[in-house]
Amino acid sequence: MSETGIKEAVKERYGQAALRVGHGGSSCCGAITATEPCCDPITSNLYDVSQAEQIPTEAMLASLGCGNPTALATLNEGETVLDLGSGGGIDVLLSAKRVGPTGKAYGLDMTDEMLALANENKRKSGMENVEFLKGEIEDIPLPDNSVDVIISNCVINLSADKDRVLREAFRVLKPGGRFAISDVVTRGEILQEIRKSVLLWVGCIAGALEENEYRSKLAGVGFEQINIEPTRIYHVDDAREFLTHAGIDVDAMAPLVDGKFMSAFIRGTKPAKSKEKTCCGPTCCN
Predict the structure, then answer these.
(1) Per-residue b or e along 275-285, where b marks 16 or more CB atoms closer than 10 Å to that residue's CB
(2) Nearest-angstrom CA–CA distance, 265 and 267
(3) Are strands 104-109 and 130-134 parallel, antiparallel or unpaired?
(4) For the whole model, what pTM was predicted?
(5) How far apart are CA 65 and CA 158, in angstroms?
(6) 19-36: pLDDT as tens digits
(7) Alpha carbon distance 135, 150 (integer Å)
(8) In whole angstroms, what is the distance from residue 175 CA to residue 200 CA?
(9) How does pLDDT run across 69-127, given as a tens digit for each residue?
(10) Bridge partners for 152 per DSSP
(11) Nearest residue to 119 via CA among 192, 241, 208, 22
């Protein structure tokens, strides 16, 4: 699939998810309502009750994430946070509470339906330190060195140009800024035909990166203190029903992929500016 085709597929999927939520359903299982539990082992049970109580129900129902970056990222009063692929706004609204009225939380999304839902959730929340931007994560509409923390929840794996996404993230972070996202990654070599089948289940249309490749790409754009921490490891039995309906021999595939797909919390830091040397004579003394 071409880069344009991938973007259109992502827009379609997330646009339809937003519309389902608008009609009283949930994004995670299609037609379920707000009173029913989510049946998807990837997107379910990511947020605790105290977090759910802080935000509009529709923001929770619109979540298509694979983790909870707001629970793992360090956010401080007065900081500026950017959520890449913000969807219905759940992580933006939770972040806005943590950075307080002197801070700011941006959400970036390319889908009109999700942006409309996110802005409605912002209105319901009453929070004023929130702004949703329309744009693509490969071309972030913010200036250089303008953000303290970048978060994202299972979105970067959807991009066909992950190197560009990471370069953009590095660009907009302030020196010393933190990259703290949840994403789906793979571990070790996986046959391409099997990889595609499982990635259909986890919703990674463009494909998840292998964990060491992710580290390499982060280092390549300049990030330091890189760490990938598994948060959920997926087993074939989690997807047995889905894969069987897709005509896949699950038992034959299991030994090749079991435990090789996971959600992970991925961290990196943009280096702080080095201190300029000052001269105290014919030669510099510090």
Answers:
(1) eeeeeeeeeee
(2) 7
(3) parallel
(4) 0.77
(5) 12
(6) 555 544 434 433 333 333
(7) 15
(8) 37
(9) 777 889 999 999 999 999 888 899 999 999 999 999 999 999 898 899 899 999 999 99
(10) 84
(11) 22
